[in-house]
Amino acid sequence: MPPDIDVDVQAVRRLETAAKQVASSLAALERQIVSAGDVPSDAFGHLPFASDMLRDKYAEQVTGGKELFAAANDAFGRVATALADTVEAYEHNERDLDAGFKAIQSGLPG
Fold first, then answer.
1. Cβ partners under 8 Å of residue 69, min gap 6
2. Which pTM does this prediction carry?
3. Cα separation of 3 and 63, whole Å?
4. CA 36 to CA 30: how far, in whole Å?
5. Residues 19, 80: contact at Cβ < 8 Å?
6. Where are the alpha helices (DSSP H) in 37-49?
7. What would the pLDDT profile of 46-68 be if each residue is shown by its tens digit?
8. CA neighbours within 13 Å on the CB side: how many for 42?
9. How many CB atoms lie within 10 A of CB 35?
């Protein structure tokens, strides 16, 4: 007979909450990166080739950072959703087991 599985549902809920908080923090960082990318057009000077190159490289870094933080935010959001689904599945199974045991007990002669 396989061993019983004992799940600490509250611990899974705490992980879900933590994942949501991380996702929220990552979203805030993403907004800050986007804000940091909003610089005046003359911020890199007026040298014909060098200024354009610096501006383009800076924009590339901002875009890359935004994409990385957005992807991390999405990943932690999916983790939080999966944990919430796991909690719901365990709670549903527990309710079904309790109902099954009650049905069996009610059918036994007293």
1. 26, 27, 29, 30, 33
2. 0.75
3. 50
4. 10
5. yes
6. none
7. 888 999 999 999 999 999 999 99
8. 1
9. 10
- Token pair 């935010």 is at which residue? 73
User: What's the token pair of residue 4?
Assistant: 């019983």
Distance CA 87, CA 23 (A): 19
B/e letters for 37-56, b = 16+ CB within 10 Å, e = fewer, are eeeeeeebeeeeeeeeeebe
One-letter identity of residue 91:
E
**Rounded CA gap, 17 and 38, in Å?**
32
List the single range of 16-25, 57-66, 101-110 with lowest mean pLDDT. 101-110
| DSSP secondary structure code for residue 108 in this structure | S
